[in-house]
Amino acid sequence: MIRFTIFFIIIVGFGFFANWISNYSGLILFQVGDYEVRVTLTFFIFLFALCLIITIIVWAIIMYIYNLPKKIKSKSEARINRKIQNSITKGLIHTSAGNSIAADLEIKKIDKLTSKKNVDIITLILKAQNANLKKDNTSLLKIFNQMQASDEAKMLGYRGLYTISKNSKNPQKSIEILKEAETYDRDEPWVLEEMLKCFLMTKNWVGACEALDSQFKNKLISKKKYNKEKAIILTAHAKSIEEEYPDESLELSQEANRLDKAQIISALISARVLSEKQSIAKAEKIILDTWKLNPHEDLALLYSHLVPGLSPSIRLGKVQSLIKRSKSNGIESAIALSRIAIEAKDYKKAREALDPHINDNSSKRTYQIMADIEIASSKNLGKAREWMRKALNAKFDTNWHYGDFVSHVWLPCIPETGELRVFEWGDKLINSIDENDTYIDFLNNKRLIEKNTENITQSDDHELDLKTIESDITETILDKDTKLTNQKKKKRTKSAKKEQVVHQDIINSPDNPGVQSDEDINEL
Q1: Of 395 and 205, which is predicted with more confidence?
Q2: Contacts of residue 231, Cβ cutoff 8 Å, sequence gap at least 6
């Protein structure tokens, strides 16, 4: 409504102005020297408007001709940019699909259309991806160095150079690159994370703590995760200096215990150092607190040895007291109790502790301890051999593990990558290439040359690892059959030539182990 009103007012005003001009009787005089020109006001206004219009048209034509080369160039550049963008898009698709040959063709098109001095960041990213696909580290180094010339892609260049150095397993060079990146942007999340990994791989525990503190300061990790990971680093530091600097090791391990009371290794270190300082009560309290949260057989064994000189029976009582106070009846309690009971020669209690945990899913160490009980109690080598056979075929083994990574010792991180992980103690399913053995059996060809099959006797016990059994039963065999071997040394020389069987059970029965000479023992 307002616009209509304004437009109406303008039309009415123009009408009044035109009416005034048409009724105006005066003339306009133009005098140039002796020449005079008289025109009416209406004609003058019409002539002025015409000249103005012609001037505008001429100026527009001149400016169009003047700007025509720029317009042609801009259109050409736009057309080239469209081709470059299409080539970049196709190249990224090809690299994502793993087709480096097609990506090379698109990169060549881009290089033809662009100047070498002004390279787009997206183009560099495409080239980097393609070079990485082809495992061309030389080209990658060149590309990432080009990226560092641009402030926008400088951090990306640092990331690429660090990745190459890390893959070449050069932690010192990696740390140097990370320090440069930290100087450029000290709050970059990936820099702090990778710094932590490098410090862990190089066993720089102080630097690892500082990197973890920076992550927590920048709110990259939660308080709970920070406490758990800080306890791991402090534990690793304490373990590395325990023998040379026990006092400093004690401070570090106690700090780790305060951050995470379920940390087994830090509790063991603290208890060991405190026991050497005759602080038995403090050591017992640390072990008890950790045992309640995360039992481990070494905690119970150390608990029984805190006071030196105790008899096995007294140490057995201390372990039983620890189990009662913590109200834990798990496998770790049974293992610790059975080991101490064997030392105290209380074999009945050792069996009773393990019996509830014997099943098809028992771990290797459980079967091994049962074999130890049979050897130590009744010297029943037949039963011991059966337990060892079960240990060799056990589905589970006891170790430190995180996911599929297993270790027989505690680790603060995965050694190859430096990733800080919480390793847990317990039974872990032994991984197999093919648990059902279907694929392996399909390719398992046992066919031999016919002439050689006459001298080979296959046995069901061929897969038995006798060296493992040797460590458990050799001493018993030596004590029991020394006299028998001395009497039969001469008889074996003739019979040995006739026997050409590759593999044979050495132990025949618990009462007749079958040892005939010292050579039999060596062969075992």
Answers
A1: 205
A2: 256, 257, 259, 260, 263, 266
